[in-house]
Amino acid sequence: MRARTRSLQVAILLGGIALWEIAARAANPLLYVPPSAALPALRDLLTLTSYPDLPSHLLLTIQEIVVAYGLAVLAGLGVGFGLGLNRVLGRVYAPILAALYAVPAVVWYPSLMLFFGLDAASKIAFGFLLGFFPITLAVLAGVRQTNPQLVTVARAFGARPHVLFVKVMLPAMLFTLVGGLRTGLALSVIGVIVGEILGSKSGLGSLINHAYGLARTPDYVALVVLALGVVVSTDVAATLLERRAQRWTAE
Asked: Model-level pTM?
């Protein structure tokens, strides 16, 4: 079954590439680049021919993602856990968090850029903002679905908040938490890269914006493919962690 699924995925991918090649060759070559032209540009990109400073830009983007996601996890766990334990505060703030999460995130970026400037801080803040809400809401939902009797018994035996979270709540809310962490990671990555595209002097997103502004369409496509690789890599890492968490729960 898995081999059949992989075969279908490969067939769909190859079919999409073939359609892309046909459509791009029939369109304006300045705006549409076929895969046959994008592959040499990707080769030049990876060999540092077209962008010799690519490693420093890519490293900066990865650092921003790590910091933004780390802050989102810490804040999301803290706020979600606090609101989950205090039911009154949870009822008050949960709808507010859900409403803020529903607002298109891009509307926050101009304010962040004005406050933090064009350096890494605004990109980290944007990535943090996108990752914070799904993690917080996942933790809040997970705490609520934990058996309250187990929490009461643990408190009666003097369990401190961090022990209560690790020993009682975490096993019960693991699947919800992992889903929130995975979503938060994907959104943090997207937030950082989009922030760099919208306004930045360095980073992978700034290179994408640079290639687009100069109508270097093959380089633009190659950089987008590289950005897609970063997103897919983080999702693969999150998937592996999710499987590990599932085995830990089964044990």
From this structure: 0.83
